[in-house]
Amino acid sequence: MLGPWLHDWRGPQGRRCSFWVTRPMAEALATLLRPRYLDLLVSSPALPSPVGSCSPEPELLERFGRRFPLAPGRCLEEYGAFYVGGSEASADLDLDPDLSRLLLGWAPGQPFFTCCPDTGRTQDEGVRAGRLRARRHYLVERARDARVVGLLAGTLGVARHREALAHLRNLAQAAGKRSYVLALGRPTPPKLANFPEVDVFVLLACPLGALTPQLSGGFFRPVLAPCELEAACNPAWPPSGLAPYLTHYADLLPGSPFHVPLPPPDSELWDTPDVSLITGELRPPPAWKPSDDPGCLALTLRSPLELAESSPAALFLSSRSWQGLQPRLGQTPVTGAVSGRQGIAIAYEDEGSS
């Protein structure tokens, strides 16, 4: 099948390309492509190193959950892409999260081709990549309109996940939003539907995990990636089309070349007028108070010199018409246990035959 792949992929690719396949197939493809492409990269999954083993080679660039043997002085944005994988049945990008992650993060100006091993046909993914980016831009607008953000702790074993949670909470606070950390395991529509007050959810997971579910997945509220919350809450983040799409939350933390610190509270970036592209209304500037402001303390002083805990979540719960099951301890009369009905629901023994 290597012959049809090379015959179909004849676009003006220049002399640089990068592709993803399994290891035996990668060696065979690299042997056939190297005479045509002088600068060829074969990526490998960025699997975590075993405990006690040596760290990966420093010259390998890690991006999109993969490692690229990039030569010194070269940039990954200069390369086209050739992806071999998936199946003929996975036409929707939601069914192939690995391909979706690569299409979102790859440079928009570079060609991106895919090949289905079931049929051996290649396809230009430029149009599909544009639709996918437009969908993610819509989710960024939803995050800018949101007032309550739910942070889903999808991983507890990947390095720096605590630092990433603190960073996302600081982002939400700086943008004037309330944030809550939820540890629910694998996010499913029934689980997230238990929190109707949350406007958007942000999934904190490893880069090799599935991409955040799309709106077509049946979720009551949209589920975003950490990079999209960064674009929505950080006014210093580059505008749409210029900012990279990062799939690993570690790329957003201090020490990463992609880290963009928040502007100071007195910066003019916080006062820039912003209009929602969904509702058409003008968004008010966030009232961000520095961390040393006494108005941000968790304990407030009330009249008879008594300390009371001020919790926005408790105040919001008290204003709801339904606050959950009422135990009514000591108010229910005590009765003896009696024998219940026997049989199955379609025909109990005391119902007789119909």
In short:
This protein is an alpha/beta fold and 354 residues long. The protein contains eight helices and 18 strands. 24% of the residues are buried.
What does this entry look like structurally?
With 354 residues, the chain is α/β, with parallel strands linked by helices. 23% of the residues lie in helices and 18% in strands. It has 8 helices and 18 strands. The strands form 6 sheets. Strands 2-1-6-7-8 form a 5-stranded mixed β-sheet, with helices on one face. A 4-stranded parallel β-sheet has the order 10-9-11-12. A 3-stranded antiparallel β-sheet has the order 3-5-4, with no helix packed on it. α4 packs across α7 and α5 runs parallel beside α7. The N terminus is likely disordered. Keywords: Iron, Iron-sulfur, Metal-binding. Pathway: Protein modification; peptidyl-diphthamide biosynthesis. GO terms for molecular function: 2-(3-amino-3-carboxypropyl)histidine synthase activity; iron-sulfur cluster binding; metal ion binding.
Question: What keyword list fits this structure?
Answer:
8 helices, 18 strands, 4-stranded parallel beta sheet, 5-stranded mixed beta sheet, alpha/beta
